[in-house]
Amino acid sequence: MMKTVDLPDVIPVFPLSGALLLPRARLPLHLFEPRYLVMLDDILKTSDRLIGMVQPDPNPKAASGREGPPLHSIGCAGRVTQFSETEDGRYMITLAGMSRFRIREEVDGFTPYRRAAMSWAGFDRDLGQSETDPGFQREPFLNLLGSYFRAKSLDTDWDALQKADDEMLINSLSMLLSFEPEEKQALLEAPSLTTRRETLVTLIEYAMRGGEDHGMMQ
């Protein structure tokens, strides 16, 4: 089993507002900008194949990055596990979430994409077995989720949701439901699965009380 000491000190970062990757989850991405095509080419030559998914920080007091807008300090690294090239040179890739990180500093370099020095301390649990949520009451949660889907005219595979274990269910919904970027960041930074589930319930209840609907769940 991988440990935090096995993770590299510096990895590429991919700032993407609203995108959420969580440990042991999978995130499909579409790469088409030239700088990120270069990034993919470079990371496929490494043994770890890691990309750091991180959201831009909208706080006006946040310090700007070396080559772009300021970034949140906490993100999640994913390993490229699948990739395919389209006829026009774009790539579809899949990231498998490995571990969250805290950005120590961005590093200089000659790459067109951004890179950062990472601290993996405090996220050892991310590299372990799936988390459980001892206080999770599945039936009331699914009832709430059903009300939310009906209110937002969403559809999904209910059989898959009902069969999913606690972590897959909570993390998949955290990643797929259309929340604001800062709400996604709160879900990412939740210290435990229980805290993430509580945050998720709060966001769903808020949306049902009149929070704006920002999209559809596929």
From TrEMBL:
Protein name stated in the entry: Putative ATP-dependent protease La, LON
Keywords annotated in UniProt: Hydrolase, Protease
The organism of origin for this protein: Pseudooceanicola batsensis (strain ATCC BAA-863 / DSM 15984 / KCTC 12145 / HTCC2597) (Oceanicola batsensis)
Domain (Lon N-terminal) ranges: 11-208
InterPro entries in the record: Lon_prtase_N (IPR003111), Lon_prtase_N_sf (IPR046336), PUA-like_sf (IPR015947)
BP term (GO), one: proteolysis
GO molecular function annotation: peptidase activity
Superkingdom: Bacteria
